[in-house]
Amino acid sequence: MLHKVYDIWDNMIEKIQSVIFRHEKKNVALDDSEFFDHVHRILVRRWNKSNNPLHCMAHSLNPKYYGQTWLAGGTGRVPPNRDPEISKNREICLGRLYSDSHRLKIINNEFPTFSGGRNDSIQAAMARDEEDPVNWWLCFGTSTPNLQQLALKLLSQWSTYSQIHNIKRNKLTIKRAEDFAYVHSNLRLLSCTSNDY
């Protein structure tokens, strides 16, 4: 789920823009909307608070965002390796994850092989559009083993609920785990109102 955060925010802003412009009977390409501009500023400010390099790293490791179907699905879409914000945050994330410069160099050398599809077979290229990202890395990521290991770790991350509730690890009831997830979310919202946030 971590790999979907960036795309969900991006799509949400596009959908909100579409709804506002449709309601105001305006053309997105030709007209301006003061109301949308105000909403957009709020959304971007919120995104900038919650966005972190890990989201961008996970987004850039999702093969779907390099596939032809996704790229053709909207105007202005570019693969993550060509997006300046994502690339900058990916570099920050890699720098934090790999303090060893040798290991970082290996990962940085493997990334263009993945992002450019250099070793992709026809099957791997087609699977970028259709396959679950974790399955894609398991099936087709062997040419970049270090990047594959990182991708599997990041793309396998899930929600707060699954972090709290793991049947093998503890004996929480489902209701109690849901309560913990609810409390966790509310505490995060409360922390947003503090001056230290």
From TrEMBL:
<dbReference type="InterPro" id="IPR012337">
    <property type="entry name" value="RNaseH-like_sf"/>
</dbReference>
<protein>
    <recommendedName>
        <fullName>HAT C-terminal dimerisation domain-containing protein</fullName>
    </recommendedName>
</protein>
